[in-house]
Amino acid sequence: MSVTVDGDKSGSVPNRVRRIVRGPRPEKVPALVGTACTLIGLIDIAAGILPRFRVSKMHAAAEVLPGTLGPLSAALSLSAGVLLLLLAHGLKRNKRRAWRAAVVLLPLGAAAQLTWRHSVTGAVLSLALVTLLAVHRDQFAALPDPRSRWRALANFILMGAGSLALGLAIVSAHPRRVIGSPSLTDRLEHVLYGLFGIEGPVDYAGNTGWTVGYSLGALGMLTALTTIYLAFRPEHPAARLTEDDETRLRALLDKHGARDSLGHFALRRDKGVVFSPSGKAAVCYRVVSGVMLASGDPIGDVEAWPGAIERFMDEAKAHSWTPAVMGCSETGGQVWTRETGLDALELGDEAVVDVADFSLSGRAMRNVRQMVKRIERNGYTTKVRRVSDLGEAELERVRRAAEDWRGTDTERGFSMALGRIGGPGDGEAVIATAHKEDDDTAGSSPYGDLKAIIHFVPWGTDGMSLELMRRDRSADPGMNELLIVAALQQSPRLGIERVSLNFAMFRAALARGEKIGAGPVLRIWRGLLVFLSRWFQIESLYKFNAKFQPRWEPRFVVYRKSGDLPRIGFAAMQAEGFVNLSLPRPFTRRKPTPTPRPCAHIVPSQAEHEVRAA
Question: What predicted TM-score, i.e. pTM, was given to this entire model?
């Protein structure tokens, strides 16, 4: 992408931008080839399993790949079908290795057509597809995705389960040829033996036993070979923030960190980063399920954003990843859509409290005021300090409490969570703690009188953004309100003028849907959000943030096309920790799930998620 910027140097958005977009675009040939491989793979699997299918009207279509008559040809058909199904998705995503595998597989299929079935038509069609792949080979240049050897175990489990299901279908597809009446247990035993190339307890008349045996052996071989390949292929780990990357990002945040409340979260060490050619801007991201997911606005000078965005889109194109941005501001959304041709959709609103305007007085703050007064009467006190002001022993106690009070097995958060407390270079972060010195359990608790923690990260030099909220389950309800009020009241002493309480998804829909005169569509949409709040705390988080009378700043999701939104949403849920598809770590002790308490906090994309709404 070529970008020319004309405008002043004041840090505002450039007035005139001339661009040529080279971002990832849907290619017709890879999509068609991938779809064809899927359909042909299903036909070949059916031809390898069902005897009648091999002589049906679909027989001519099934001839596109390896033959379907005789024991060996049935096994070849089944193997080719399974391999094509595995390759189809990679071909749709322009993957180079999927292209190479298809180019090798299809000539083998053509040879099998001529050798076993003497089918010139099938061989010609296979070679025609190879020719199509060769002509358009430049469209299949995407690099591999981040991966590890855990994929080998996942492949063994999934392929093993699929082989068992297909094997049971193969064993049961010849009822007239079966000798006797084998039970389901006998058939499963026959499948298990057959996957290892051993004859099982089920007997067939004629050559059917050979056909079943070859097919089961082919499935077992595919499971073994694909698992071995995944176990021994080179790893491509996900991008991680290096020390040099972090140093450069901190320098950008020192100059431009006041622009975006999510800027400091770019320092998560499980994110990758791409810098603009000038080094004056950067975009941080994580790749999840083929989605290249950025969060917040680019870091750095606005005039250098186009260069960082260009690098981001080039990286997405090189790997055929789906580009997406979660939670960018209105300015960020304008730049992203203008520079890339992507679309933007309002996702929700960020709650920002101006410290100078905050007060507990007035009818609107009555509930918060009464709750804070009640907790203070119960003997709770608060402390609000910079992380650099805490001693090492107390900081370690806070870290241990935050870890032990977490309500989930895995740390949640991506776009609005830092994932650490008191790390090197994070001394300007703010910690608010609640204590109860006269508590009977204070002497026996490993955390002393500590009862709750709230952690804020810097937002420029005069702001802070809420990152984490944790509390002892034995503490009184209302700890979060108590600590947020304490932090807001102590902010002037720390030089803080604005505090971000982070994000409320679909806030506008919830607010408008409950008003008089709301239309039926809006009411239905609000009802759906309320229903989903049982699992994702959408409504409760909005109401919790609204207690502090913030101003609402819209946040957007940027995406390529509407069809990508479900995939982007699923990837975001994985990144935030709501969906965990990774294999469990061995010998990891699972923490008991705590009992939900009647308290809410902030956005579900933050590190703190254990506080549930009643």
Answer: 0.69
